[in-house]
Amino acid sequence: MNKTRDSAEELYLLESSAENTLNGLYHFHKTSISTANRPKCLSQKNLDAILKKIAKKFPLPSDFIHKENCSELIKSRLEILEETQSFYNIMRNFTCYKETAINLLTSAFSVKEVCMKSHTYIAVGILQVLSTLIRGFYIINKIEDLTKLIGVYGLVYQSIHNSNESSYISVCKLIQDYNDPLAKLSEDLSIGETMIQNILCGLIDDFRPCILEGKQLQTNYHFNLSVGQKSMSVPYCTILYPNLLKNEAIESVVNVLIVQNMVVPLHRDMHVNYFKELTTAIETRGKA
């Protein structure tokens, strides 16, 4: 029981930072597609060639700055560092969140027979953290020129300090590894396949009040977790936002943790008070 309570508390504490983490990513995305607010280095013609090389060779080898002609970057390195610092910090924060989340979820999966009836709060915690992870990766996959911005930040930081920023390699690895986020998360969380499936299936009766109307917005999907020969497939119904779905490859990441007609919000601009309704519904049933 103590392990169950500790896991639930740790997941709750982690999730308390999720809103700021996701808001940061959302701001990064909006800035990356804004002509007026994009970092100036992305529109400077004298940097165009080196930025294209950065994107092509990302994550960059340690000797990139010595092998390539980075003279134009060096000239403007302080300005570039200043205008890319906040975006790098956003990615560093999410990288930290992801690493902590994977560790806590792995620990939570070791709790025996977690289900909504007997372990409500740890089950909700698992879904909250998993939801934040996939929502975060969805937004990251929408950020334009991400590898250019993170790569150029790393180069100018290295040229100033003669070493990488302490989290730079981890941030680059996250961007590279999670280019296909569902596949990578499936691998990372394979130990929890059965538990996730059981928790999701247990939500069906509790979420009748949260069903969203509007069949014209709904389409059927399957959220798949596959590792080797083992796989699970959970039926989902996702809300599609056509103005956001320019990349078909990430459609299945939209509005995750959706069981039949029950929806978790994609981000703050599409808010559905999902987990408040979840907790209320379950607590009410428990008192009945």
TrEMBL record:
GO biological-process terms attached to the record? cell migration; cell morphogenesis; cell projection assembly; cortical actin cytoskeleton organization
Of the GO CC terms on this record, one is: SCAR complex
Q: Which is a Pfam family this sequence falls into? A: Nckap1
User: Which InterPro entries does UniProt cross-reference here?
Assistant: Nck-associated_protein-1
Its domain of life reads Eukaryota
- Give the family from UniProt: Belongs to the HEM-1/HEM-2 family.
Q: What is this protein called?
A: Membrane-associated protein gex-3
Q: Which organism is it from?
A: Thelohanellus kitauei (Myxosporean)
